[in-house]
């Protein structure tokens, strides 16, 4: 009886440990065994850097990290700072055989002359991150920034329990850097991870009207790990999704995160907004489609912007 108890206890402990591992991702230090990515300048008339990302075993996705500095030697001082950005992601298409793909391509079109840049790749294998060394620094090539243009936008959460209406809206109008960015998203945190959720998909213009910037049904947009828990708005971004010709992988480019915004709650029920957080209630009826499968749709669940 005692032996059986310990077997059951060990099994439960193993399951619990697996859940913890899958929910809390620990960033690793720079891995000396992974060289810096290859970074090539485009053609004479182009303004992009082409970054080659080698495939590694068990890779689920890879983030492209970019450091920038006004000093070509990357020497930081009181007036010159080094900043690090996560500028995009490459996701493996699990439905394709990628054993013959030696590397993935990612182009950075948004560097500025007079500023110097270097790149690293951060791989995720399902449990942890591994980051390469950074490439050598090189001066930027263009004049366009990948950022949203809007002055002090307001993000409003509207909650009405009597009608079961839960929505998010953004005002005023927003301007995107180019028409390449077709998905405008809000970045939400559930306390352990931050993830972008689409406000509008399929944009064909850089000017986004306030009247269109609404998530009418948060329950149908959020993944199930974002329901029934305190959420916090972290900012706004626009996303550009592309793929290689054979669709063995998908590239996600995003603008810099717009974090200068106001937040408000329009609620008909009791809602504590003292810490600027809000809760979207879970839906217990059979019509709830936010099951385990829906939560793993690539565009909704595995874009890691942190």
Layout of strands and helices, then pairs:
Blueprint: H1 2-23, E1 38-41, E2 49-54, E3 61-69, E4 83-92, E5 103-108, E6 116-124, E7 129-131, E8 138-139, E9 154-160, E10 165-171, E11 174-175, E12 183-189, E13 194-201, E14 207-208, E15 214-215, H2 218-221, E16 230-243, E17 249-254, E18 262-267, E19 278-279, H3 298-301
Parallel strand pairs: 9-18
Antiparallel strand pairs: 1-2, 2-5, 3-4, 3-6, 4-17, 6-7, 6-8, 9-10, 10-15, 11-14, 12-13, 12-16, 16-17, 16-19
Question: Any overview of this molecule?
Answer:
The protein is mainly beta. The chain has 3 helices and 19 strands. Strands 3, 4, 6, 7, 8, 12, 13, 16, 17 and 19 form a 10-stranded antiparallel sheet that branches. It has a 4-stranded mixed sheet with strand order 15-10-9-18. The protein has a 3-stranded antiparallel sheet with strand order 1-2-5, with no helix packed on it. The N terminus is likely disordered.
List the keywords.
about 300 residues, mainly beta, ten-stranded antiparallel sheet, globular
């Amino acid at each position: 009886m005692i032996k059986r108890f310990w077997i059951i206890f060990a099994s439960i402990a193993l399951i619990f440990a697996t859940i913890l591992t899958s929910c809390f991702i620990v960033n690793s230090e720079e891995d000396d065994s992974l060289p810096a990515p290859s970074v090539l300048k485009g053609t004479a008339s182009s303004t992009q850097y082409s970054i080659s990302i080698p495939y590694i075993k068990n890779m689920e996705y890879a983030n492209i990290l970019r450091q920038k500095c006004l000093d070509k030697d990357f020497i930081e001082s009181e007036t010159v700072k080094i900043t690090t950005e996560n500028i995009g992601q490459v996701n493996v298409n699990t439905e394709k055989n990628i054993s013959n793909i030696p590397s993935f391509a990612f182009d950075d079109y948004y560097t500025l002359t007079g500023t110097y840049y270097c790149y690293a790749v951060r791989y995720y294998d399902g449990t942890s991150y591994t980051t390469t060394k950074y490439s050598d620094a090189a001066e930027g090539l263009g004049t366009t920034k990948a950022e949203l243009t809007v002055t002090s936008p307001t993000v409003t959460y509207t909650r009405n329990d009597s009608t079961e209406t839960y929505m998010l809206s953004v005002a005023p109008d927003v301007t995107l850097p180019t028409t390449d960015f077709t998905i405008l998203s809000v970045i939400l945190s559930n306390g352990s991870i931050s993830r972008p959720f689409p406000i509008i998909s399929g944009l064909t213009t850089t000017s986004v009207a306030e009247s269109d910037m609404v998530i009418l049904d948060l329950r149908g947009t959020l993944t199930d790990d974002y329901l029934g828990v305190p959420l916090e708005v972290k900012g706004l971004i626009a996303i550009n999704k592309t793929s290689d010709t054979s669709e063995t992988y998908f590239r996600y480019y995003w603008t810099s995160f717009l974090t200068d915004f106001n937040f408000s709650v329009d609620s008909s029920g009791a809602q504590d907004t003292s810490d600027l957080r809000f809760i979207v209630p879970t839906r217990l009826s059979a019509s709830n489609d936010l099951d385990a499968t829906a939560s793993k749709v690539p565009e909704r669940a595995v874009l890691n912007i942190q």
